[in-house]
Specification:
Blueprint lengths: L7 H26 L3 H21 L3 H21 L5 H22 L8 H5 L7 H20 L1 H9 L1 H6 L4 H40 L5 H26 L3 H37 L3
């Protein structure tokens, strides 16, 4: 693995891993805290419509898909703004509509045979300079948004009604949050693909939630977890010639299962200890 670092494609893959980890860790914390996993999945699949549009029109794929996903996310945010019960309608519109739109446009693209696997499941070892620059700009924008709007984002994450009473523009912050999720999703697509990206958004943040005591700490810990999974997945994918996105997500899932198993065991042990205390406390 170490000798592979001399190759330019591996250096680009490592940079991509760092960028994706930052994007998924920071925004994933907001997704988990705001219970937006379902919506994030819909946004990810809506991005496929942007991929189809890019091939059909001959536009840059990543830029077009990102703008398309952000636009679709804003539309979904506006639909659910007044009535949170319509979330399933909005996600269904994004999920099925985006995929169908993308497939139709790719079918209508004349004389072009598109390999869709890299967009669905990622291909981090094949990331080029143009995609890497797009990812870097997207991550820079994400970090800037979170830093500038940290307090409003924290306020609506904790209590939206209280934030509204305090005079915060909850609707605008909600739309910004959903658009930020879309930007993070599309940033991670080259590494793990549209289908698997939701796992890297949620699993690191869920693991970080076990120990973090603040939103900022949750974000930083989630970034570290995402980086661990991404580096492990990259190493295993290179060593065994496997699909990088699938290996990254598989490593995250296995770690989550182990963590939940340990936590369950600790809880049972504590419960058993507490149950034995009254019996041994008699005269």
């Amino acid at each position: 693995m170490l000798e592979a670092l001399a190759y330019p494609f591996m250096q680009k893959a490592l940079l991509s891993v760092v960028l994706v980890s930052i994007a998924c860790g920071v925004v994933g914390a907001l997704v988990v805290v705001n219970r937006m996993t379902f919506l994030a999945g819909g946004v990810a699949h809506a991005g496929y419509g942007g991929v189809g549009l890019a091939f059909f029109a001959g536009w840059p794929v990543m830029i077009t898909a990102t703008l398309f996903a952000v636009g679709a996310a804003v539309l979904a945010a506006m639909i659910t703004l007044r009535d949170r019960e319509r979330l399933d309608v909005a996600v269904g519109l994004l999920w099925a509509g985006g995929m169908a739109f993308g497939v139709l446009l790719i079918d209508l693209t004349p004389g072009y045979n598109v390999d869709l696997m890299s967009y669905l499941f990622g291909s981090i070892l094949a990331v080029g300079n143009d995609v890497l620059w797009t990812m870097a700009v997207s991550v820079g924008a994400l970090v800037a948004i979170v830093i500038v709007f940290y307090r409003p984002l924290l306020a609506i994450s904790v209590d939206r009604e209280f934030a509204r009473v305090r005079g915060l523009p909850v609707a605008a912050v909600h739309i910004l949050l959903v658009a930020t999720v879309a930007l993070a999703v599309m940033t991670a697509v080259p590494a793990i693909g549209l289908i698997l990206v939701i796992a890297l958004l949620t699993i690191p943040a869920y693991l970080a939630e076990m120990t973090a005591r603040s939103l900022a700490m949750l974000m930083m810990t989630a970034v570290l977890w995402a980086l661990v999974f991404s580096l492990a997945g990259l190493a295993l994918a290179y060593a065994f010639d496997l699909t990088s996105g699938a290996v990254i997500v598989a490593s995250a899932v296995v770690t989550l299962a182990l963590a939940e198993g340990v936590r369950f065991g600790v809880r049972r042990l504590r419960k058993g200890t507490m149950d034995r205390v009254p019996a041994s406390a008699g005269p």
